[in-house]
Amino acid sequence: MITFRARPAEFPVAMPDQAFETAPTVNRNAPRSQMWRKVTLFGLSILLAGWATIEMYHVLNVSGVTSLEQLLLVVFCINISWIAYAFVSSTIGFLAAMVGLFRKRRATPGPALLTGRTVIVFPIYNESVDRVFATVESTAESLANAPGRFECFILSDTNDPEVALQEEAAFELMRTRLSPGVLVHYRRRTMNVHRKSGNIRDFITRWGGRYDYMIVFDADSFMDRETLIELARRMEASPATGLIQTIPQLVGGRTLFSRTQQFAAALYGPVLGSGLAWWAQNEGNFWGHNAILRIEALASAAGLPEIPGRAPFGGSILSHDFVEAALLRRAGWNVQIAPELGGSYEQGPPSIIDLSIRDRRWCQGNMQHMAVLLKTRGLTFTSRMHLMIGIFSYLASPLWLLFITIGMMLSLQNMFLTPEYFGESAALFPSWPVIDSERSLHLFLITMAILFAPKLYGMIYGFAAPRWRNTVGLLRTFYGVLAETILSVLLAPVLLVEQTVAVYRVFTGRDGGWNPQHRDSNEYSLKDTFRHHTPAIVLGVLLTVSAFAISPLFAAWLAPATIGMVLAATLSWWTGRERSGDAANRMNLLHSPDEIDPPKSFLDSVADRAHYKGLTAPSIAGLFADSNLRTRRSHLVDTYWPLERTEVHTPLALARARAERLPTVEEYISALAPKEMLALLNSPRDLEKVVDHYGAREQQYSTGTT
């Protein structure tokens, strides 16, 4: 007997596509950011980058600057600008974070009882059912007696038929376990239009009017009860705010790679996040999850159109979050980052390979932002900087590789090539590429100091933060920074090659697609790891041989980059194993406060997984054979098909047609492609017609009629 509905009644809200070429009317009453902060950040960054570039010019300009040296100088200027920005931002963030430690923060003004209705959405795509539904259950239960109205809504984009049936079974089980009054809803889309951004948009345009605010989870997100309530309270206290982004900490890492990332995020994250929040102010950014949005603002100002052209540059915007934040600010809404607000967590990739798979999609999405920057009018300077920083975070890798290559070409030219006596004008003496080695060493040391300064800031922050002192301790923090620094130096060249390959794939027209992320360790075999990292290994060997051909001293100077590349597969395999992570744990390395004292939201989710492990879901054949099963699941199916009147959903049409051609239900089921099977599951009426068709055919055979 069905006593509940999977979804509430629809309450539509319009979410029109925003015209990139036309700037909207801006709410001039919205609070503005303080320009002096941006001038300070970018002014200091430009001064530092300019000084370093001038120093590099003097390094090269001993006996004139050749064409190749000019190219090296240009690439260096671009790269050092990125490093200078990161250094200045982290320096400001360090100061802001230290002040925050010793300054008592004022409580956010707001009513004791929240009047707005908040929905926590869980966009999922072929995820591990036990993990997702355990998190939904624990999150919903934590808000059972919250001072406000909270609901949870699972927004499935799953296109694997077996996973879809598991989700339905898990949702039915969850409903029997939830406390009275705890509201959780489930919707699986029939058509995955525009991926995650389309998933959210479908929800807003159908149920958005039911809610005031929306907190977005990722499939591996966890948030404490107090954080969820505080986000809603801050939204109610600030009607001009459209988005508040928390800074999620990493939790639950088991492999050496994930524990290294977890340690770095916990120690350096508050410093970097404080710097970003300090200069961005009301023009912050959005990272797609662990944030609260005002539905009115998102619906009216951030509907994303498709970018003209084919993937990878055209089509649906993959990194939709950056663009949505920029469009919200363009319309006058405040977009804030809250580094001081704890209780926000996620899980990181367990290995370099898993990180690379995710990075390919992120890289493609960030490269698409080039078109957004060129086409969109009315974006603020800060929003444009967010987009440019995202773009350059991937372009930096191939540019550094180009810098190394040009430097090696200069050295090879000096040793092996015939001097060019006649360039643009006749010269008596050849133009040799000569550098000032002493000045070069000084510049190199200063660059290294700038690069590693954020790690020093993080260590000092850890020494000063009470939670770090009380859980990890000063000595373990120090050893953790040393271990993380050594590993990051070894892995940086591997990640440089991975990001360079990702950029290359985008610029050669290869679509990165949208694959579900791995949340747990896959323990890739050594063979698979070597296959994946072949480009890095080959490049490392070539650079090493070329460097030794120049001189052993040059090879030693290049060793920090080449060693990591040559050992890429070994390092990736070793750091991607839980055994390596456990060994580091036993050695008291890479501990973070949230590992020693895990957050309740994470522990509750892990505890609830046991209820969904091994959950038995109906099979496809079982659905065909049991009418009660089909009736039970009918209320779970979202039968909304976003089709024009003349459109036909090809997989569903094929599923219908196959029934006419195949004589038995067994042959029919085995012949259906996954998309066709899913389409049939998403259309209970067509499923019943197919079942009736084969039932009638069996009856004809049993009576001897045709």
Automatic annotation (TrEMBL):
It is a multi-pass membrane protein. It is found in: Cell inner membrane. Keywords: Cell inner membrane, Cell membrane, Glycosyltransferase, Membrane, Transferase, Transmembrane, Transmembrane helix. Pathway: Glycan metabolism; osmoregulated periplasmic glucan (OPG) biosynthesis. Its main location: membrane. Coiled coil: none annotated. One of its GO terms (cellular component) is plasma membrane. The chain crosses the membrane at residues 39-60, 72-97, 387-412, 441-465, 477-497, 536-569. GO terms for molecular function: hexosyltransferase activity. Pfam families: Glyco_trans_2_3. Residues 215-404 form the Glycosyltransferase 2-like domain. NCBIfam families: PRK05454.2-1, PRK05454.2-5. Belongs to the glycosyltransferase 2 family. OpgH subfamily. This is Glucans biosynthesis glucosyltransferase H.
